[in-house]
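Researcher: Watch the backbone:
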Amino acid sequence: MLTSQFLIDEKVCCGRGCRMCPYEPKHVKGNTELQKRWDISQKSSYNVAMNKIGIPMIGLGTWLIPNDEVEQISTSALDLGYQHIDTAQVYRNEEGIGKALAASSTPRDKIFITTKMWPGMFGQEEPFQNFKGAISACNDSLKLLQLDEIDLYLIHNPFAKENRLEQWEAMIELKKQGKVKNIGVSNYNVKHIQEIETAGLEMPSTNQIEIHPWHVVRTELAQYMDKHEILPIAYSTLAPIPNWREGSQWNGKPEDMKSGAIPCQNIADQYGVTVPQLFLKWAIQLGYPVLPKSVHLNRLKENLELDHFTISRDDVKVISKIAKDNQKCLAWSGDFDPIDVD
């Protein structure tokens, strides 16, 4: 799989058969599998091969949208043509999204719903979620969303070290019961996913992680997910933009990023697009479904309008390398990065 970290580290083909390799592969000749991947990459981005769950490439992110506002915003998004809404138990807005879904004229099979089970947090009185609790959390989400089945159900983070496998076993059980169609994880690193592999359990279909030029997918994780056909889903792709999450505690950006110039404006100008559109398209061309959040109708529309331009491979590499020496999690508080949790 081609990743933004690959574009930082590699100067020529690595020979590993990455999808969408920007270089003429070294070892294609005589290798049927690599030839197949190369042929796919020349026609379209690798998500065609990796996106086996049919998740739309652009979804509505809803973190920090209050429950009493999210119904109208979700309705507006669906009316504009959004086919994916991403929420979570901890967002506390599933009820409002459920009302929008119930009232929508869009057929259910044309809407992809992702939600996440909150496994627990360090330093909280509430214990980490166990098997029974995970099952119950899903039932609660189904009720609030007014759904019979969730398209993608994720474990929100890897914080529950002692309970991670138990929680994953619950996810598998929910899939067997027909309550969720696909199961995955979020903020997991290689070690976390290897626990599932070592246990001989069904592997996650996706891993939702923070992805933008300041927080690219690390090579080791990208290679592992590629090997096991785990689709990376990008959240907080617009984090480097100065006014992103302005005033929120969930903003780990240094002060100079909060008030400085908009990055990559010169590249966006070349394509006649905004920087948010440029960053979203950058992620999509690397194969990552994106989840931009907005409460403004004009921005909801803008975030959806990405089909009229294609970023050149050279510019994709420039964007990927712009923060080569300043990699940092921006979506959480301070210097905390959930992917580094033991």
In short: Residues 52 and 296 are 31 Å apart (CA to CA).
